[in-house]
């Protein structure tokens, strides 16, 4: 099994996905253990002083004015975890919780939080044992970190609450710990707060969305190419020299992908052979690279933000170590936990995904309309009138797109004051991440419907030969159990199979042996 070593300098997008989705093991590097010990020494020194230090010897948030005596500090840290584990609603997905825990562990190992090495090791043990704490949908405002979600994970470190075991069964954490030889931790000064105060949940969801959207944007280039071909459109609009004069890199990449898929097609270029020749294709076909390309550039920006956040140590207060000039280590309050940078790109991606779905739906509708499909039967039906063909598949696609437009309304433009107005502006980044996950799921389904329609349309052009890459896509789709043209049948299983085909990356995998690697 792949092992991810956590050091002091952050981590990578690939490592986060490996731990969250693939169950990669986690190990702490010797440098991380040393950094943890060094930062802890600073906290211990400050805890011994009579003057109050926020997070070490005070209350929290609006209660930070109270100085907490040494004999109450273990209770203080335990109490903040218990009281902040106040989430409600459905459980969030296992991969989200694993990403959240791994990213918090990454920050602990930076040597900026002041927790003891054994706390970080217990979190690694939890991940390696496949124990996934119960985290609920609601409880984070995306400021002061993803407080309630992280608190539920911290509660598990203390051996309390419920968690999902590696077999998927929900059980008390104490039972799972005993079974897997994991010892609960007793939290000392600052440790409870350090486990709660980060953007880890929203960042984890951003990283997984980036992985999914990268695959979906390539899939969308393929489905757009298949639709262009099925509509007897022209590939001339994909010429590299046209995209070079508007130098958006994403646009050029999408056009190049489509051109690769269409290479050798016997269907493209017939648009001037009709009784009423088309001068040019409709926007949804002709502008496919411009729309998908803008989304690709949005992905690139969001990836930059994610990589910066992965290199960060997000906590409040944060430990600043002493230096060779004689400056002592100290703990300083800050605002680095604010989720605005992550929340903005989460919302931006939801907008881009909604627009990509919208243009894909318009292409699908064009395939089904006999007045605009250039010779295809109405709704791609076998015997139109007796058969309805794909009429209602487009209804389903339209419903998905409509929901995606609602999900594109930004969460980050909202803010609700909390903690007696001490925390009076929040990012709502967790909410932005949750709705983006739904949008990504819906985009997958929308592209699956376009693929289903375009593949049927290509097979109905019986006297023309599709491009080799197109044939490879259609053959792989049929091999996956998605049926071709014919009389009406129960359509939902076909659509579900097409969804799985796109979701699992098999569309891209089917085409690339012919085209070579696509962007």
Automatic annotation (TrEMBL):
InterPro entries: Aromatic_Lyase (IPR001106), Fumarase/histidase_N (IPR024083), HutH (IPR005921), L-Aspartase-like (IPR008948), Phe/His_NH3-lyase_AS (IPR022313). Its EC number is 4.3.1.3. It is found in: Cytoplasm. There is a cross-link at residues 143-145 (5-imidazolinone (Ala-Gly)). Its main location: cytoplasm. Pathway: Amino-acid degradation; L-histidine degradation into L-glutamate; N-formimidoyl-L-glutamate from L-histidine: step 1/3. Coiled coil: none annotated. Contains an active site 4-methylidene-imidazol-5-one (MIO), which is formed autocatalytically by cyclization and dehydration of residues Cys-Ser-Gly. The modification 2,3-didehydroalanine (Ser) is found at residue 144. The keyword Cell membrane does not apply. It catalyses: L-histidine = trans-urocanate + NH4(+). Belongs to the PAL/histidase family. PANTHER family: HISTIDINE AMMONIA-LYASE. This is Histidine ammonia-lyase. It comes from Streptomyces sanyensis. The lineage of its organism: Bacteria, Bacillati, Actinomycetota, Actinomycetes, Kitasatosporales.
